[in-house]
Amino acid sequence: MYWQLSGFIQQKESVTLMPDGGINLLINIGEEITSTQFNKTIDHDTIYMVGPMLQTDVQLLTGKILLFGIKFRPGAFTYFHTYDSLNEVSNQFHEFTRKKFPDIKRKKTPPVTYLDQFYLDRFSASKNPLLPIVSDIIQSHGRLKIEEITKKHFITERSLERQFKQHIGITPKEFIDIERFNFAFATFQRRTGSSLLDIVWECGYYDHAHLTNDFKRYTGKPPSDFILSDLSKNSTGNLQ
User: Fold this and answer.
1) Longest C-alpha distance within the chain, in Å?
2) Can you list the domains of the chain with their CATH numbers?
3) Where in this chain does the record put each HTH araC/xylS-type domain (predicted)?
4) 3-class SS at 89?
5) What is the pTM of this model?
6) CB-side exposure of 211: number of CA atoms within 13 Å?
7) What does the pLDDT look like over 16-38, one tens digit per residue?
8) What is the DSSP annotation of 133-182?
9) How far apart are CA 146 and CA 93, in angstroms?
10) CB under 8 Å to 58, separation ≥6 — which residues?
């Protein structure tokens, strides 16, 4: 998926990015942006790779903003780029080689057509079996058990974990937890009048404490602080 964040911000504002099991490649064409989670500056005209995120990242923006990115579905990055193991980039943010990133300033063809062709040319079929498993986890909103996955897809737990670390960058359990948390987060946004107990049962948590622990782990705050704050107004799973 291609995404773009653009505009002009007079006074410094923050955007909160939620935990995410996918890989993002991005280039900053506007003024520098500060990433508080990674304690780094997203510099002008620099390309970055963002690995799977296990915590929220608050980014500080001001001035002319023009950020372009490519978000890969979890498990799909290795169809286009070669990495020994994406576990090496989990929860990390670092510069990415320019020669492996499309020249988005190219004007000869429509941007989407050019980008599609760029990645079509890079596509390499592999024996990565994770996409159907990833789809099941996403569709269930993280309400699947490891045992259910291994049984349905005829894969051992050890092999499942090894392939998740290699092709996604995190363990199956971490990915399931992120999907369940993001579903709970979205449910808070969508149903502000619901009780915490309703959210607990709908999102597959064991109890109130289980939900609270996940919120503290991913955002640093309990659900009650989240409900009373503006976090939901300035947060996103992926910028578009």
Assistant:
1) 56
2) 2-122 (2.60.120), 130-235 (1.10.10.60)
3) 128-229
4) helix
5) 0.87
6) 23
7) 888 999 999 999 999 999 999 88
8) HHHHHHHTTT---HHHHHHHHT--HHHHHHHHHHHTSS-HHHHHHHHHHH
9) 29
10) 14, 15, 16, 17, 36, 37
